[in-house]
Each structure stands twice: as C-alpha cells, then as structure tokens.
Amino acid sequence: MSMSDMRFSPGQFLAPGVDWLNANLHGLFVAISQVVEAVLGFVEHALLAPHPYVLIGIVVAAAFFFANRRVALFAALMLAFCLFSGLWVASMQTIALVSVAVLISVSVAFPLGVLAARVKKVEDAFLPILNIMQTVPPWVYLIPAVMLFSLGRVPAIIATIVYGIPPMLRLTTLAFKQLPKDLLELGQASGASPRDILFKIELPTAAPTLLVGLNQCILMSLAMVVLAGLVGAGGLGAEVTRGLSRMEMGLGLRAGLAIVAVALLMDRLSRGALQRHAPAKLV
C-alpha cells in the first residue's frame, strides 16, 4: 500500500452529510438566505440612500449626542477618508455587513454568556467548543458556509457571525463571574427583583468587560472582511482582493486604509457611547 492510499481525507466523510443537508433542508437554507439578504439590503439602503454629506452629518450629530465632541470629530474624519478615497459605496457595504453580523453575534453570545456564568455545567460544555472556534483559522469558516449557501454575501455574513461569537461569549461569562458578591447580596436584601438586579446592578458593574467583548466582536468581524471578499461579499474586502489579484498597489492600499478607518470608526463610536452613559464604570 502506497503512502498516497493511506491519506486521511475528511471530505469523504463530510460530503455525504453536506449532500443530505442540501437535499433535505434546502428550503430552510433558502429562507435563511432571504432573511439575511433582506436585513442586509435594508441596512445598506439606509446607508447609501442619503447623500454622503448628509449621512456624515447624521453620524457626526449622533456621535456628538451619544458620545462627545472628540468622537464626533473623529467620526467625521474617518467617513471623509472613506468618501474622498473613492470607496464610499464599498465602505458602506462593509459597515452594513459588520453591523448586522455584530448585532446577531451579540444577540446570541450575550444570553449564552450569562447562562454559562450562572451554570457551571454549561460553561464546561462551552469551553472546549470555544477553544476550537478560536483556534480554527478564520477562512475555514467560509468553507461550510459556501457549501450550504453558495457564494455571495450570505455565507460571508454567517461565517462572520460565527467568528464573532466566541470573544463576546467568553468576556460576557467573565464579566458576570467577576461581579462582587456583596453587591448582589445587597440587591437581594433590599428586595430588588431579578430584573432590577440585572439591569441596575449586574449590567452597569459588568459594563467595562462587556465593552471589551463588544470591541473584540467588532474587530473579529472586520477581520473577516477581506476573506469575505473572496466569496463575493463585495465591500472593501472585494476591493482588497481586486487590488491583490491585479497587482494594483494603490487600490489595495486605499481599501486597506479604509478598512482601518471603518474599524476605528465603529470602535470609537461604541466606546464613546458607552463611556458617555456609564462614566463611573468605564474609566
């Protein structure tokens, strides 16, 4: 028996399962694709419908109201760079994709993280799964997503969601496990309901760690932007891919800097808003 005959190929074991899923759950995958496309299309339309100057003004005003003057000025500079670099549409597509992915990732990771913090068995069950998810290279997530949803924005956003869940889940669990016991006991002794304890004691106290988790989720999602361009997701990732494939250094550099601008914009907006509304906890 030659060495080539002894090779292990996981594809021969996974292919029948993928074929079964495509044959029996095709309607479910189509429905998921339609929902994701609809939500993503709505967000993109909301970002691209106004004139760029109008949208910049709206974002700057919102940043000034929810954060502070410095964040508003920074947002104006980052959006101006995206506009005058000629990558406004691609930048808005990327912001839409990342925003939807982060929203879904946080919606999934936050309740699971709270549950893991309160139930030890759940945390023990999640731990090896999270270790594997954070060890696997990001582009590997695109393979099953493309197999089930074909090429386009849907597999890109699903892979981005999966890639963004682990850091938010881990840090949510850590945030709630580190809550001071005396504060919780004080809330219970004062007759506060579980809802009041959650929103008035636990969330404000856990806010700094939750903020770190949100920032990590945003950065992880943006790390998938370039890879998402390989499967037809569009946005700045497609521009980076086009610049590399055509050896256009100028286009690739502009797109790369635009990704940095988008990352800084989303990071400063989220951090500034949370610091404004929880100044005592987010020093």
Fold and architecture overview:
The chain is about 80% helix and about 0% strand. It is mostly helical and about 280 residues long. It has a single domain (about 25-275), classed as Orthogonal Bundle (MetI-like fold), CATH 1.10.3720. The longest helix has about 30 residues, at about 90-120. The chain starts with 10 loop residues before the first helix and ends in a 6-residue tail after the last helix. The relative contact order is 0.13.
Mean pLDDT, to the nearest integer, reads 80
Structural shape: globular
Radius of gyration: 21 Å
CATH fold category name: MetI-like fold
- Which structural class matches the secondary elements? mainly alpha
Instruction: Give the strand content.
Output: under 5%
Taking pLDDT < 50 over at least 5 consecutive residues as the criterion, the unreliable ranges are: 279-283
CATH architecture title: Orthogonal Bundle
Estimated helix fraction: over 70%
Q: Mind telling me the CATH superfamily name? A: MetI-like
Summarize the biggest pleated sheet: none
Pfam families: BPD_transp_1
Domain ABC transmembrane type-1: 91-270
Main location: membrane
Transmembrane segments: 20-40, 47-66, 72-90, 97-119, 139-165, 217-237
